[in-house]
Design goal:
two-stranded antiparallel sheet; single chain; ten-stranded mixed β-sheet; alpha/beta; about 290 residues; Rossmann fold; elongated
C-alpha cells in the first residue's frame, strides 16, 4: 500500500481526507497522488484535454476562457498545498483531469498503480443524492482497490478500535489481510461485529460459533467479537460504532449496480453515506 489517491475539490472534507492520507503515507513511507477533476456535465461534448503540465489543449464549445481561469485557480490551490510546511515529509504528485469526477477516479485506479483511495464525503444530504448516490458511494461500488471515506478531521493515532462488520458467512481473504495489517500498523484492536436482525435471526450460540470459527480460521489475535441486535444491518453497524466508541468501520462491498442494487441494496454504501467516522471498504468476491 504505497501510493494513495486523494481526490480533492478543495472543500473541508477534501482537506480532512488529505490530512488523513498524509498521516498514513508518512507512517508507511508511501506517496500521495492528489487529483482534481474539472467537472464537465454529462452530455457536454467538450473535446479539449489537459497536458501533463496542466495546460488546456484541443478545442470544444465550452468557454475556454472560463477553463483557463479555473486552471489558474486550481494550480494556485495545488501550489499552496505543495509548499505547505505540514505536507513536506511525503511526496505529493498533483494531477488535473477534465470530465466526470467519479469516472476520472476509477480511471486512475484502473492503471494499477493506486493501492488505496482516501476521499472526503459530505454524506447524504437530500432526497436526490439518496437516490442518485454520492460520488464516494459510486467509487466504493466500482473501485478495485480499498477505499477510505472520511467526513471529519481524524488523527490516525486516535484509531484504536476498528469495527470489522460482516455476516461472516464468506471468507474475504484480501479484506481480512487488510484489516489485520491496519490493526498491526495502528496498534488497534479489531472488533468482529455481527448485526443480528429479525429477517436473518440466529440465536447467540449460533452467532458466537460463527464468530469464533471465523477468528480462528483467520488467525486473529488481538480482537473482540460482538453480537448486536438491530432491525436493520446498516443502522445497526452505525449504532454499534457510536455506542462502543469505534474509530473506524471496515466492510466488504460486492459492487452491486443497477436493478439488483435497487432490489437488494448495498449495506456498505449506505454506511459510507451516513457514518461520521472513517469507513474502509473493499470490493471483493465471495469465497
Amino acid at each position: 500500500m504505497k501510493r494513495i489517491l486523494v481526490p480533492t475539490d478543495f472543500t473541508e472534507q477534501s482537506e480532512n481526507a488529505l490530512e488523513f492520507a498524509y498521516q498514513i503515507a508518512k507512517k508507511i513511507n508511501g506517496e500521495i497522488e492528489l487529483l482534481h477533476v474539472l467537472d464537465v456535465p454529462e452530455g457536454d461534448q467538450y473535446s479539449g484535454s489537459l497536458s501533463t503540465g496542466g495546460e488546456l489543449t484541443g478545442g470544444g464549445h465550452l468557454d475556454d476562457l472560463f477553463f483557463v481561469k479555473l486552471l489558474e485557480k486550481t494550480k494556485e490551490r495545488f501550489q499552496d498545498i505543495l509548499v505547505s510546511p505540514e505536507y513536506q515529509d511525503v511526496k505529493i504528485i498533483e494531477r488535473m483531469k477534465i470530465g466526470s469526477p467519479y469516472k476520472s477516479i476509477i480511471e486512475e485506479t484502473e492503471k494499477g498503480s493506486i493501492h488505496l483511495i482516501v476521499m472526503g464525503t459530505s454524506g447524504v444530504n437530500d432526497w436526490e443524492e439518496a437516490i442518485v448516490g454520492s460520488t464516494a458511494e459510486r467509487v466504493v461500488r466500482k473501485a478495485k482497490c480499498p477505499v477510505i471515506t472520511i467526513q471529519n478531521k481524524v488523527n490516525l493515532s486516535d484509531i484504536k478500535n476498528i469495527a470489522y462488520a460482516s455476516d461472516f458467512q464468506y471468507n474475504h481473504d484480501d479484506l481480512v489481510d487488510l484489516v489485520k495489517e491496519f490493526g498491526v500498523t495502528l496498534n488497534a484492536k479489531i472488533h468482529l461485529v455481527k448485526v443480528n436482525t429479525p429477517s436473518n435471526f440466529k440465536n447467540d450460540n449460533e452467532n458466537e460459533a460463527i464468530l469464533k470459527s471465523f477468528a480462528g480460521e483467520n488467525k486473529f489475535s488481538d480482537y473482540e467479537f460482538h453480537i448486536y441486535n438491530h432491525e436493520e444491518e446498516e443502522d445497526g453497524i452505525i449504532c454499534f460504532a457510536e455506542s462502543y466508541g469505534m474509530n473506524m468501520i471496515v466492510m466488504a462491498t460486492e459492487g452491486k449496480t443497477g436493478f439488483s442494487r435497487l432490489l437488494e441494496g448495498s449495506i456498505a454504501e449506505d454506511v459510507v453515506n451516513y457514518s461520521k467516522i472513517p469507513v474502509l471498504t473493499f470490493k471483493t468476491q465471495k469465497a
